[in-house]
Amino acid sequence: MSLITTHVLDTSTGTPAAGIQVTLRGPEQAEIAVGTTDADGRVADLGPDSLAPGIYELVFATGAHFQARGCDHFFPQVTLAFQVEASAEHYHVPLLLSPFGYTTYRGS
């Protein structure tokens, strides 16, 4: 498992959000890794085994998910910034998504 993982759930349907592209960007906005959520809405291999301390971003391409469902939506993408303090610590950043809102938390 990589240092950074995520899980996207579509709360409007109560199901995992498969097929969402997720980009990990580093402190200088450089792209570090790109993944796509699987059938369970997860990206288990996103990025290296370690990261230098700093602020990172996960960018979720949510618009394509809702367009594929023919669903009106407000957020074409969701960008979550988070801070890495310990380079060997695992960071799980889930996204709970609906067409007009989202929430996140630090998972385990």
TrEMBL record:
SUPFAM superfamilies per the UniProt record, alphabetical: Transthyretin (synonym: prealbumin) (SSF49472)
Keywords, comma-separated and alphabetical: Hydrolase, Purine metabolism
GO term, biological process aspect, one: purine nucleobase metabolic process
Gene Ontology molecular function: hydroxyisourate hydrolase activity
Coiled-coil annotated residue ranges, if any: none
Domain (Transthyretin/hydroxyisourate hydrolase): residue spans on this chain: 4-107
Residues the record lists as binding substrate: 7, 42, 105
Record function comment: Catalyzes the hydrolysis of 5-hydroxyisourate (HIU) to 2-oxo-4-hydroxy-4-carboxy-5-ureidoimidazoline (OHCU).
Entry protein name: 5-hydroxyisourate hydrolase
Organism: Nesterenkonia jeotgali
